[in-house]
């Protein structure tokens, strides 16, 4: 997909002015956020499970090569065709090759962020294939020629009114005056239209939430059942996934599944969790004749042995973005590439380069909510800080920001000068701001005062007050 | 695998080994991985999944009802056809049912409900009601475990608008791990049915304005028949 992460700042300006988007995003706190809180409250073991989840993934990553080989050997024994893809281009070519070998014309797809990452739809369409997204949110995004704005709720940026208008524009074969004023009517219309595609499809492509080394299985987790129709009705099932999805055993995946749905949608469990192991077996009345798994690296292996190894624990629940004040204000498209929110701010620079994505790790207030809700306990703020450090070391940032940081660093290393400067600043601002108690405008602080007043300091620094407190001076 | 495929495989695995800074043959690694794959015990099993059978049964039904599934009970296998017919009549649904071909289901006394018509084989697009049998029920989240096979087409669980799943009470377990143990007991450790479906309610979506709608692509209705053991 096209990358616009470099244009993050202008993306944000547009997003803040987009009233439809703001309306759609306003549902997050009472929706996914409140639902997760309720689900967590119902499972007293939830916090203990987060530690277990982190440890399972850490162990797996330490032996990633061996677990992938173990999974491959089991999958192959069950009749799977395993394909390894070092790059996005490799993965696209492999999948197009599978479609061509199957003389495919129509491809249905379950939801897959890895397929977004490799730009799969465009590649298949250029080769003349019809590609139909079957997850309702993905379908909405596809008919609008957009990309998902959230990793589990792709159309979260759309209002009901927008969706109704899109359906009327897209489904012109249906009566113009049909009622579509309720979600249930929109869902029914999509059901009828996509049902036909499921039945006619030659190839069904899904992602995978997990691969299981013990059994050679791939797992998808959905609520709609679209992934299951995609993979059961087509002649060929292709799984596109990445190296970080493997876990050792069914016991390990049980613990991770207890965290996934609760963190994502606040459900106790998703409606459909499907384990697929090989193609249709002798005597089976249905199921795909071929089962392929394409395992993508695309820059992930390069994170092993670095501080960023921790992001490979991610199970793509979306909790970090649901709880992020920045995501909640600007939505997912502003981030300018596949993965939005805090996880995107850490992963995108690794996958598309810091040159392109340097704004993203700066798009954080460092409130720490993302880390506190992450089921895999990924230290997202610390990793964003690591990218900021690297960007600075590489000469990134504006001249003004770099000069400001240099001045600050000079002062911070010289306590006497620091105390003098802060005392002078606090006293000056305290005197100037005494009457109103706040400033409408301050030099060098326009980014703040354009949107809100800056409270005036009381006149003395914290250090001064602390020293007085220690001496027992009454305030 | 083609030559290109072999090359790509080596590229990925060597990149991982290079970054991890250790070869596959490093002492202890293979053993640690083999040990885990052969014998990982359950990690933390939630307390709610470790209750007595009466409580587990109640939890199972409560969890399913909370996601708008219907749960009915049959005192024993002989009562299953009547329970299914009663559900279909109460929901104003046709009495024609697609049942895959599960031998346990086929052995039931369907003549006791002559109005019910059963068709076997994989689901067809026009089928309105599907009937399948679970290999296990998981109480902790009201989850049904369905194994595909020659007599259990996977499509019956997904194509019809109404899905009826029969669970023998003796197949009800507390946590997921015990359900997986049941699968292992049948097929051996490390072997899975082609498709193992964990189903927890009727199909749903919240993709339109964040509002929950039941019946997205899979069944709009799920009815679970819990079958007791005759004394």
What brief labels describe this structure?
heterodimer; A: 475 residues; alpha/beta; 6-stranded parallel beta sheet; 4-stranded mixed beta sheet; 23 helices; 12 strands; 50% helix; globular; B: 231 residues; 30% helix
Describe this structure in words.
The complex is a heterodimer of chains A (475) and B (231). In chain A, 50% of the residues lie in helices and 11% in strands. Chain A is an alpha/beta fold and 475 residues long. The radius of gyration of chain A is 26 Å and the shape is globular. Chain A starts with 7 loop residues before the first helix and ends with a helix. The model of chain A has no long low-confidence stretch (mean pLDDT 95). Chain B has 231 residues and is of the alpha/beta class. Chain B is built from six helices and twelve strands. Chain B has a six-stranded parallel β-sheet. The longest helix of chain B is centred in the first third of the chain and has 18 residues, at 3-20. Chain B is globular and about 65 Å long.
Provide a quick synopsis of the model.
By secondary structure, chain A is α/β, with parallel strands linked by helices. Chain A is 50% helix and 11% strand.
Count of individual helical segments of chain A: 23
Count of β-strands of chain A:
12
Q: What oligomeric state do these chains adopt? A: heterodimer
Largest interface: A-B, 104 and 82 residues
Overall pLDDT level of chain A: 95
Please list the strands of the largest sheet of chain B in the order they lie side by side.
Answer: 1-12-7-4-2-3
Sheet with most strands of chain A: 6 strands, parallel
Per DSSP E runs of 2 or more residues, the count of β-strands of chain B stands at 12
Helix and strand arrangement:
The complex is a heterodimer of chains A (475) and B (231).
Chain A: H1 8-17, H2 19-25, H3 29-42, H4 46-62, H5 64-77, E1 81-85, H6 88-101, E2 106-109, H7 113-117, H8 120-126, E3 130-133, H9 136-143, H10 160-170, H11 183-200, E4 203-206, E5 210-212, E6 217-222, H12 226-233, E7 236-242, E8 246-247, H13 250-264, E9 272-276, E10 290-296, H14 319-322, H15 325-330, H16 341-352, H17 354-357, H18 369-373, H19 380-393, H20 399-412, H21 415-432, E11 438-439, H22 446-449, E12 454-455, H23 462-471
Parallel strand pairs in A: 1-10, 2-3, 2-4, 4-7, 5-8, 7-10
Antiparallel strand pairs in A: 5-6, 6-9, 11-12
Helix pairs in contact in A: 4-13, 16-19
Chain B: H1 3-20, H2 29-39, H3 53-66, E1 70-74, H4 80-90, E2 96-99, H5 103-106, E3 117-119, E4 129-133, E5 136-138, E6 143-147, E7 162-168, E8 172-173, H6 176-187, E9 195-199, E10 204-205, E11 213-214, E12 221-227
Parallel strand pairs in B: 1-12, 2-3, 2-4, 4-7, 5-8, 7-12
Antiparallel strand pairs in B: 5-6, 6-9, 10-11
């Amino acid at each position: 997909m096209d990358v616009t992460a470099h244009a993050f700042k202008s993306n944000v300006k547009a997003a803040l002015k987009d009233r439809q988007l703001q309306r759609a995003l306003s549902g997050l706190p009472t929706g996914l956020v409140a639902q997760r809180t309720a689900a967590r409250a119902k499972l007293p073991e939830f916090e203990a499970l987060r530690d277990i989840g982190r440890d399972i993934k850490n162990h797996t990553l330490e032996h990633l090569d061996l677990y992938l080989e173990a999974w491959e050997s089991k999958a192959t024994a069950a009749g799977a065709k395993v394909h390894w893809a070092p790059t996005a281009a490799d993965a696209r070519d492999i999948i197009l090759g599978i479609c061509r070998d199957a003389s495919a014309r129509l491809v249905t797809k379950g939801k897959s962020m890895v397929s977004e990452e490799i730009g799969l739809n465009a590649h298949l369409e250029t080769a003349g294939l019809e590609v139909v997204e079957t997850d309702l949110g993905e379908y909405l995004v596809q008919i609008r020629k957009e990309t998902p704005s959230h990793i589990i709720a792709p159309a979260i940026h759309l209002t009901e009114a927008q969706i109704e208008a899109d359906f009327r524009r897209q489904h012109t074969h249906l009566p113009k005056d049909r009622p579509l004023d309720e979600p249930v009517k929109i869902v029914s219309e999509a059901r009828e239209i996509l049902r036909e595609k499921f039945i006619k499809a030659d190839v069904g492509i899904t992602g995978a939430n997990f691969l299981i080394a013990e059994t050679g299985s791939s797992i998808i987790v959905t609520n709609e059942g679209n992934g299951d129709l995609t993979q059961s009705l087509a002649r060929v099932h292709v799984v596109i996934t990445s190296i970080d999805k493997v876990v050792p055993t069914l016991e390990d995946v049980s613990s991770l599944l207890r965290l996934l749905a609760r963190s994502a949608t606040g459900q106790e469990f998703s409606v459909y969790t499907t384990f697929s192991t090989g193609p249709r077996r002798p005597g089976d009345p249905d199921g795909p004749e071929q089962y392929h798994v394409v395992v993508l690296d695309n820059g992930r292996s390069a994170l092993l042995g670095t501080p960023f190894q921790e992001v490979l624990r991610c199970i793509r629940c979306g909790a970090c973005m649901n709880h992020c004040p920045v995501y909640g204000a600007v939505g997912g498209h502003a981030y300018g590439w596949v993965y939005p929110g805090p996880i995107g701010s850490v992963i995108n620079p690794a996958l598309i380069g810091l040159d392109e994505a340097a704004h993203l790790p700066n798009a954080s207030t460092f409130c720490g909510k993302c880390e506190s809700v992450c089921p895999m306990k990924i230290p997202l703020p610390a990793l964003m800080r690591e990218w900021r450090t690297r960007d600075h070391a590489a000469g990134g940032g504006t001249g003004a920001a770099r000069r400001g940081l240099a001045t600050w660093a000079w002062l911070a290393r010289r306590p006497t000068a620091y105390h003098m400067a802060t005392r002078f600043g606090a006293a000056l601002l305290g005197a100037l701001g005494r009457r109103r108690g706040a400033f409408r405008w301050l030099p060098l602080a326009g980014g703040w005062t354009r949107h809100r007043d800056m409270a005036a300091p009381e006149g003395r620094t914290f250090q001064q007050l602390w020293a007085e407190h220690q001496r027992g001076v009454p305030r | 695998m083609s030559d290109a495929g072999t090359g790509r495989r080596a590229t990925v695995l060597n990149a991982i080994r290079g970054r991890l800074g250790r070869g596959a043959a490093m002492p202890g690694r293979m053993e640690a991985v083999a040990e885990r794959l052969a014998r990982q015990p359950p990690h933390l099993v939630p307390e709610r999944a470790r209750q007595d059978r009466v409580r587990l049964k109640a939890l199972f039904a409560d969890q399913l009802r909370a996601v708008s599934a219907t749960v009915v009970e049959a005192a024993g296998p002989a009562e299953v056809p009547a329970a299914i017919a009663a559900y279909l009549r109460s929901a104003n649904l046709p009495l024609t049912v697609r049942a895959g071909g599960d031998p346990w289901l086929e052995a039931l006394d369907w003549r006791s409900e002559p109005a019910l018509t059963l068709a076997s084989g994989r689901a067809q697009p026009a089928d309105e009601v599907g009937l399948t049998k679970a290999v296990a029920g998981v109480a902790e989240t009201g989850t049904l475990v369905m194994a595909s096979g020659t007599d259990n087409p996977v499509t019956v669980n997904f194509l019809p608008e109404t899905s009826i799943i029969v669970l023998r009470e003796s197949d009800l377990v507390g946590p997921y791990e015990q359900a997986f143990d049941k699968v292992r007991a049948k097929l051996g450790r490390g072997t899975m049915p082609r498709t193992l479906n964990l189903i927890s309610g009727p199909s749903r979506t919240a993709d339109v304005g964040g509002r929950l709608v039941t019946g997205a692509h899979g069944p709009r209705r799920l009815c679970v028949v819990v079958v007791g053991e005759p004394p």
